[in-house]
Amino acid sequence: VTHCSVWPWYRQITSLTSETEHGHGSVITGIPIVTFKWHHVETPYLVALWILVAGLGKLVIEANHHVTSVIPESALLICFGFILGGIIWGADKVQTFKLTPTVFFFYLLPQIILDAGYSMPNKLFFSNMGAILIYAVIGTCWNAASLGLSLWGCHKGGAMGDLDLGLLQYLLFGSLMAAVDPVAVIAVFEQVHVNEVLFIMVFGESLLNDGVTVVLFNVFDAFVSLGGDKIDAVEIIKGIISFFVVAFGGSLVGFVFGLLISLLTRCTKNIQIIEPGFVFVLGYLAYLTAEMLSLSAILSIVFCGMCCQKYINSNMDERSVTTVRYVMKVLANGSETIIFVFLGISAIDKEIWVWNTGFILLTLLFVLVYRFIGVFFLTWILNKFRLVPVELIDQVIMSYGGLRGAVAYGLAVMLDENKIKEKNLMVSTTLIVVYFTVILQGITMKPLVNWLKVKRAAVGELTLIEKVQDKVFDHMLVAIEDISGQIGHNYMRDKWNNFEEKWMTCILMKPSARKNRDYVFKVFHKLNLKDAMRYVTEGERRGSLEFVRNETAFIDFKKKFDDDFSEVMPDIMADTSDDYNPVPSVSLEMHEQTMNGMRPLEDVNSHHLLQQHLYKGRKQHRHRYSRSHFDVNKDENEVQEIFQRTMRTRLESFKSGKMGVAPLKHITKHLKKDQQQKVRASEFILLDNLHYNNNIRASASSFPMRVTYRAGAGIENPAFMPDLDPMAQVQIPPWLAEAEVDSSMVAPSQRAQLRLPWTPSNLRRLAPLRISAHSTDSFMLADAPAAQQRDNDQLPPPPPPPAPPHGDHM
Amino acid sequence: MGSSNSSVNNIPNAQELMQETGFSAAHILRLHERFEFLDKHKCGQLRLVDRPTNQPQDFGAVQELALNPIGDSIISAFFSPGQETVDFASFVRILAHFRPTDRNQSRDGAQQEPANSSIRKLKFAFQMYDQDRDGKISRAELLQVLRAMLGIQVTEEQLQSIAERAIQEADLDRDDAISFDEFRKSLEKVDIDHKMSIRFLR
Q1: Phi, psi at A651, each rounded to 5°
Q2: Taking a C-beta distance cutoff of 8 angstroms, is the pair A81, A343 a contact?
Q3: Phi, psi of B178 (to 5 degrees)
Q4: Which pLDDT does position A619 carry in this prediction?
Q5: Helix, strand or coil for residue A755?
Q6: More confident call, A545 vs B101
C-alpha cells in the first residue's frame, strides 16, 4: 500500500472541516470541536484496514470446509482479491492498491521464510541436502535457460508477432520465471500431506533456489543494461563467481545471526517477557543485512531460523518458546493471506495488461514442460547416487509441484521499463502463470496425489516406542558403519553431532538447558503433558469431578470418554520445531492441531504414570520458570481472595458445630504472612487441581511449598508455617491435636490441608500435621517416602480444588 | 589392509554368499578385507570376548563401538545365541540386513526372504531388544535398552515409568511384553527402508 487516492466521498466530508485539516498554514476561523483528520492517519489506517480485510476474507473462505477441501485456500484468496480489486477499480477507475515489490520483499515475505526456517525439520533437510541442492541450483538454471532460449527461438520463428525483446531480455524473463516459489508451495502442499521426503525436496528446493534466482536476475539485469556487446568471458565468469558469493555469503550471514540469537537467548533469563521479540528482530535483521550486502536474503533468513531453532528452544522459557512458535505462525499465515489477496487485486488493473497470445501460451507450455524434463532428468542422475531412490510417482508430483508465485511477480514488477520495453507484457504473463499454477495446479494437486497413490505422510502422534526406536536406528547405523569400516553418511552425522555437543551446545546453550537435553526423556515428558491436558480437559468438560475426588477410582478412561476425544483441547504442545522429528508430516500450517490427538486412549495406568512422574518432569524445568511480577501478584491475590471467601463460608458453618472456634481472624493473619514469601502460587494450585500424588522430588530448592500453607491457613495451624516459631505448635487447635500423628502419613499432608476446610470429618485426617517445623518440606522429601506416597488408599477423596485453575501453565 | 586376497575366488563360498545376500563381488571383497582386519588372530572367526579378561575382543578393534550406547547389543547380534564365534559368512549375512531394499525383487516362493527386506530388518531391530531370543521383549529387556539410551540424570523411577509407558502403548494383548507382531505394528508408520539402510562402498 504505497499510495492511495482519497475516495470521492471523503472529499465531501473533509471539505467540511477543511479549515483545520492541514494544521499549520491554514487559517482557522473558530475553535473546532471535532475534526476529521484523515491525512493524519492515512497510511497506518489503510495498512491496518487491509490487514483486517484480508483476515476477514480468510474468515469467510474458511467458513465452509467443503469448499476449502477441494479448492486450496490460496486460490480462493486470489479470487477474493479479484473481487476486491474489481470494487476498488470500479470506485476509483484506477488501481490504487497494488502489491509493490518493496512491501512484498520487505514486509510480507521475511516472516514466511523465517517461519519456514524455524519449523524446518533439520535432520530430514540435511539428509536430503544433496538432492535439494541439485534441484535448486541445476534445476533452476535449466529452467531459466531453457525457457529463455525457447521463447527467443519462438520469437525468431515469428510465433509471437512483433516484440521488442532481445535474447538477453528473454533470458532475464526466463530467470525470473524459473524459480519455484516457497509461498505457493507451502500454500498448496500444506493441504496435501505427501510423504516427508517428497515434501522436503520440493520445499527445500523452493527455498534454496533463491540463491540462484537472485544471481541470475541480477546478472541478466546487468547484462541487459550493459548491452549485448560488452559481454565477454570475464563477465560470465564474474557471474558464476557471484553465484557462489551470493549463495554462501547469504547462508553465512544467516548462520551468524542464528548464532547471535542463540547466544542472546542464553542471557535473557531476566527479561523473559520480551525474549521472543529478539528472535523476530534478529531474524529480520538477518534478512535485511543480506539484502544490504546484495546477498541472498531468503537463504540468510532460512539458515538463521534453522540454525537457532534447537538452541532457542532449549534456552528459552517454555512459554517464550510457545509464544515464538505461535507468533511465527500468525505472522506467516497473515502475510500469506495478504500476499494472495493482493495478487488478486493487482490483476484488476487496466494499465498493466498487454495480451500477446503467443507469448503467454508458449510461456505456460514451456514452464510446465521444461519443469517435467528437468526433474526427471535430474532424478535419473540422482538415483544413481541415492541410498533410497526417488520413486517415479514422487517425481511426477515434484514436477507438478513446481509452482510459481509472488516472488516471480515481485521480480517482474521490479524490472526497469526503460531498459525493457515490454515490461507490462512480462508482468501480465507472470501473473497468468502464477494464477495458473496456484489456482489450477493447486486445485488438481490433491486429486492427482490421490489418483497416483502417492505415499502420504504419517498422520497422528508417535508412540514412545517409535521415537525411541528412531534413535536406536540412528545408533545402529553408526555402529554398522563402524563395524563395516566405512565412513558413511551416518558416520559424518555422528561426528557432527559429537562436535556439536561438545562445542556448540557449550557456547550456545544455557548450562541448565544443557543438563536437560535427554531426548527420550523429553519425548516422554511431552507425551505426559499432552495426556495430562487431555485428561483434565475431558474431566472438566464432562463436569465430572470424580477423577479429582477419587484417587482410588479406577476410571476406565476408554469407556467413559471414548468417542468424544475429538473435542478435546487441541494439542498446543505439538512440536513442529523439533529437529528430531522426521516421521510426522511436515505440515507448516497452524491447523495441524486439528489433525492430532487421535491416538487411542491409553489405559488408566498411564494416569498413574502421570501422577507419579509428570510432576517430576516439570520440576526439572522449574528453574527456568520466571514469571513477570504481573503474573505472580495477580494469581496470588485472586487465589487468596477466593480462598478467603470460601474459607469464611465454610468455617462459619462450623461455628455452630462441635468444632467450636472458627478462627477467622487467623486466616488473614497467616495469609498476610504468606504474601511476603516468594510464592509460585498458581503453579501449586494447578498442582492441586490436577491432584497429583505427592511424588515430588525436592530437587529445586525454591519449591513453593509456602502455598500449601495458604491452603492450610484457614485452619490456622502454625505447625505448617515454615517460618513460624516452632513454639507456636502448642496452639494447635484441639480437633487437630486429636488426629494421630502417624509418620507414615507424612506424605499426604498437602492434600489433607486442603481437605480440612471442607468437611468436619476430614479434620481428623489432618494427620500429616507434622509438628516439626520441617514438616512443610515433607512432601517435598518425597524421595524416601516415595513408596508411602502411593498410599492413596488411606486418603479420603480429596475435595474440589479451592480455586479455579489459572490455565496459564501447561 | 591385507591385499593378499585380491580375488573374490579366494573367499570360501563367495558365490553363494553373493547370491544369498545380494552383495556384489566388490562388496564381498571389501567386507572380507574388513573381516580380516578385525580378525587379529587370523583364525577365520571373530570372537565375542577374550576369555581370560572378558573384554570384547575382536570387535573391540572398532573403538567407536564403545562410545555407542547400543554398541554391545549390536555386537552380540552378530553372534547366534550360545555361540561365541562368528565366521565370515555370518558376518556378511548380518551386514546384509542393512543393504537398501531392492525395489523390484522377483523371487520364487521357494527362496528365502532376502536379508534386506523390511521384515528381516525389523527382525534385526527386534533382536536388539530381545537379547535372549525368546520372541518377546520383556520389561527387563526394554529397560536395558532404555537405560543405555538415556542419560545418567534420568533416575531409576523415571526409567521404569518410561518403560511402562512404552509397553502400554505397544502391548496389545496385555501380556506385559512386546511380541514381534506388536513391535512391527507400533512401527508401521516408520519407513524402515529409509531408516535401516546404509551405503556399502565398493
Answers
A1: -70, -25
A2: yes
A3: -105, 115
A4: 33
A5: helix
A6: B101
Q: At what angle do helices A406-413 and A196-226 cross, to 10 degrees?
A: 10
**CB A599, CB A461: distance < 8 Å:** yes
The gap between the terminal CA atoms of chain B, to the nearest Å, is 15
For residue A209, give the amino acid letter: N
Q: What percentage of residues in chain A have a pLDDT greater than 90?
A: 20
How crowded is the C-beta side of A431, counted as CA atoms within 13 Å? Answer: 24
Q: How big is chain A by its Cα radius of gyration, in Å?
A: 33
Q: Which of A119, A114, A595 is nearest to A331 (CA)?
A: A114
Distance from CA of B73 to the nearest CA of A (A): 9
Which residues lie across from A149 on neighbouring strands? Answer: none
The secondary structure of chain B in percent helix, strand, coil, rounded to multiples of 5, reads: 50, 5, 45
pTM for the model stands at 0.67
> Which residue from B minimizes the CA distance to A616?
B158
pLDDT bracket for residue B157 (50, 70, 90): confident
Would you call B187 and A466 a contact, using CB atoms and an 8 Å cutoff?
A: yes
The pLDDT, as a whole number, for residue A638 is: 53
Residues of B within 8 A of A475 (CB-CB) are 68-71, 149
String of b and e for A404-422 (b: at least 16 CB within 10 Å)? bbbbbbbbbbbbeeeebeb
Whole-number Å distance between alpha carbons of A356 and A358 = 6
Q: Is the pLDDT of residue A673 over 70?
A: no
Specify the residue for cell string 523390511. B118
Per the CB < 8 A criterion, the answer to whether A216 and A175 are in contact is yes
Question: Looking at this predicted complex, what is its ipTM?
Answer: 0.87
Cβ–Cβ below 8 Å for B98 and A488: no
Which grid cell is A58?
Answer: 480468510
Per-residue pLDDT tens digits for B55-71? 566 776 777 777 777 77
B103: contact with A, CB 8 A cutoff: yes
- Mean pLDDT check: name the lowest of A418-422, A423-427, A643-647, A661-665: A661-665
Rounded Cα distance, A603 and A783, in Å: 26
Phi-psi region of B82 (alpha: psi -120 to 50; beta: other; left: phi over 0): left
Cα(A396)–Cα(B134) distance, rounded to whole angstroms?
Answer: 46
Buried b (16+ CB within 10 A) or exposed e, A348-387: bbeebebebebbbebbeebbbebbeebbeebbeebeeeee
pLDDT digits (tens, 9 = 90+) for A486-510: 777 777 787 888 888 777 777 777 7
